[in-house]
Write a structure and sequence with these properties.
Layout: H1 6-15, E1 43-45, E2 48-50, E3 55-58, E4 63-64, E5 70-72, E6 78-80, E7 88-89, E8 95-96, E9 111-118, E10 123-131, E11 143-151, E12 159-166, E13 174-183, E14 186-190, E15 193-195, E16 200-207, E17 218-225, E18 231-238, E19 246-255, E20 268-277, E21 289-292, E22 304-308, E23 311-315, E24 326-329, E25 333-338, E26 347-353, E27 359-366, E28 370-373, E29 389-390, E30 395-402, E31 408-418, E32 425-433
C-alpha cells in the first residue's frame, strides 16, 4: 500500500463532488447554497451541476456499452447517445464548456468524511452492507448520500458506486441507485428504488473480468435492499481506461446541510465491508483510514470515524456518536390575536435526541401567558415530562396553549433542562391579546 499525499487533495477536488438523481424532484432548485450562476433546472452530479439532458437514467435491462455513448436496450436494440451539448458548472458556479474534460471543483459542502485505502495494483471487487438510518429531524432541502465505491487515484475520470440517498431520487425519503460519472460528458444512474428506515442495504461493485485483470473494461454496480428484495443494477459500466486502485469502504456526501440536525439522528453509520484484490482474493487487512474532508467547513458536526479490517464507522451530526443532543422542531411558536380570557389552539413541539447516548429530561417549564397542556400517549407519540429518558434517535412531544391576560403583544418560553451539553434549551412563544 502507498500512503496518501497532496495528490489526494487535487483528486478530491476533481472528482469527489458527488451526485444527484435525474427525477423531476432532483431537478428542482438545489437549495440555499446553490451558486447564483447556475441556471435553473440544472442538477447536481459528481462533477458539479449538469443540464438534465446530460444526466441519463438506465432502465432495468438496459446496458451502457463500452465506450460510454451507446445504450443497448432490453430488447437488444441499440441507441447512440449524443455527447452532452450543454456547459456544466462547478459547485462554486464556474462554467465548464460543453465537451471539456472534467476540471477541478471545490468540495464545498459536499464530500464530508470517508474510510478509504489505496493500492499499487488494483482492486477487483468491494462489497458492503449498511442500515438505512432515520430521516433527519430538520429539513433544509438537504441531500444526504452514503456509499462505498472505487476510483483511480492516478487517472481520475469517474467514481463507480452503489448509493443510498435521502431527499435525492425521492423527496424527503431514502432511495438506492447505482452510479457512474461521466462518459461522453453524461452521468449515468440505474433505476432508483425507494427504501425504508431500518432496511439492510447491500452494495457490490465488481469487475466483470476474471481473476488477474489489472484494468477490467467493464464493471457491474449493484445496490440491493436485502430487507424487501428490491435491487437496481448498472451493468457492464465502462471503466473509461481507469485502474480502480482507490477504494472507499464508506463515504458521506451532502448538499445544503446548514445545521447539525440536518443529518440523520444517531450520529454514526457503520459499513460492514469486504475488499478484494485484482486476483479476486479478499484483502485480509485493507488498512482503512478515516479522512475528514470537511475541516474548515460550516457547520462542524463532530465528523470522524473508526475502522477495523472489515468495518468502517463514519460519525457526523450533533452527537457524533457521543453524548445526548437536543433538537427542537419547530424552534418557536406563534399565535395570532386571541381574546383576553380565552385560549388559542394548542401547538406542539417535538424534542428529538440526535446524540449518541440517552437524554435525561430534568424539568420542563413555561413562562408568560402560556401553559403546557396534555399530550395523549400513543404507539408513535411519547409525551415529554419531567424525569423522562429519551434514547438516541428517540423523541417526545409537548403542547402549549396561549391564554392572554392582557391586550397587546405577549411573550414567553418553554424551557427544557436536561443532561445535554447545551442545556437548557428554550422555545420562544409569542401571541397577541385582544
Amino acid at each position: 500500500m502507498r500512503t496518501k499525499s497532496f495528490l489526494v487533495l487535487a483528486v478530491i477536488s476533481l472528482c469527489l463532488v458527488f451526485l444527484a438523481s435525474t427525477t423531476a424532484y432532483a431537478q428542482a432548485p438545489a437549495g440555499p447554497n446553490r451558486p447564483a450562476a447556475v441556471p435553473a433546472g440544472y442538477v447536481i452530479t459528481p462533477f458539479g451541476y449538469f443540464h438534465p439532458s446530460c444526466v441519463r437514467q438506465l432502465a432495468s435491462g438496459e446496458t451502457l456499452l463500452s465506450g460510454g455513448h451507446v445504450i443497448q436496450h432490453a430488447n437488444g436494440s441499440v441507441e447512440d447517445v449524443p455527447a452532452c451539448a450543454y456547459p456544466r458548472y462547478t459547485t462554486r458556479g464556474q462554467v465548464i464548456p460543453a465537451g471539456a474534460k472534467p476540471g477541478p471543483a471545490s468540495i464545498g459542502h459536499a464530500w464530508i468524511v470517508d474510510g478509504d485505502v489505496i493500492t499499487n495494483t488494483s482492486y477487483g471487487n468491494i462489497t458492503a452492507t449498511w442500515t438505512v438510518p432515520p430521516a433527519p429531524t430538520s429539513y433544509d432541502r438537504q441531500t444526504i448520500y452514503f456509499f462505498p465505491g472505487l476510483e483511480d487515484i492516478d487517472n481520475v475520470v469517474s467514481i463507480i458506486q452503489p448509493v443510498l440517498g435521502w431527499n435525492a431520487d425521492f423527496a424527503k425519503a431514502w432511495g438506492i441507485a447505482s452510479w457512474n460519472c461521466c462518459t461522453s460528458g453524461t452521468t449515468w444512474e440505474s433505476t432508483p428504488v425507494k427504501v425504508n428506515v431500518g432496511d439492510s442495504i447491500l452494495g457490490v461493485t465488481a469487475s466483470t473480468c476474471g481473476a488477474g485483470t489489472l484494468s477490467c473494461p467493464t464493471w457491474d454496480i449493484t445496490t440491493t435492499d436485502q430487507t424487501t428484495g428490491g435491487t437496481t443494477l448498472l451493468g457492464n459500466s465502462p471503466n473509461e481506461g481507469q485502474t480502480f486502485n482507490w477504494a472507499f469502504a464508506g463515504a458521506l456526501e451532502v448538499y445544503n446541510v446548514n445545521q447539525c440536525s440536518d443529518y440523520p439522528p444517531g450520529g454514526s453509520l457503520t459499513f460492514d465491508v469486504a475488499l478484494y484484490d485484482y486476483n479476486l482474493v479478499q484483502v485480509s487487512n485493507p488498512a482503512w483510514s478515516i479522512t475528514n474532508w470537511a475541516k474548515g467547513l460550516t457547520p462542524q458536526c463532530n465528523y470522524g470515524g473508526q475502522v477495523s479490517p472489515t468495518q468502517v464507522t463514519l460519525t457526523y451530526g450533533s452527537g457524533g456518536g457521543g453524548g445526548p443532543v437536543v433538537s427542537l422542531v419547530p424552534t418557536s411558536l406563534t399565535w395570532g390575536k386571541i381574546p383576553v380570557g380565552s385560549s388559542g389552539a394548542a401547538k406542539k413541539v417535538t424534542l428529538t435526541n440526535t446524540g449518541g447516548t440517552a437524554l435525561d429530561i430534568a424539568s420542563i417549564a413555561v413562562s408568560g401567558d402560556f401553559a403546557l397542556t396534555t399530550v395523549k400517549a400513543t404507539k408513535k407519540i411519547t409525551p415529554c415530562v419531567d424525569g423522562l429518558t429519551v434514547p438516541p434517535a428517540g423523541s417526545c412531544v409537548i403542547k402549549a396553549v396561549f391564554s392572554p391576560l392582557q391586550i397587546g403583544a405577549r411573550t414567553g418560553d418553554v424551557t427544557f433542562t436536561d443532561n445535554a451539553s447545551n442545556s437548557p434549551q428554550q422555545v420562544p412563544l409569542s401571541g397577541k391579546g385582544k
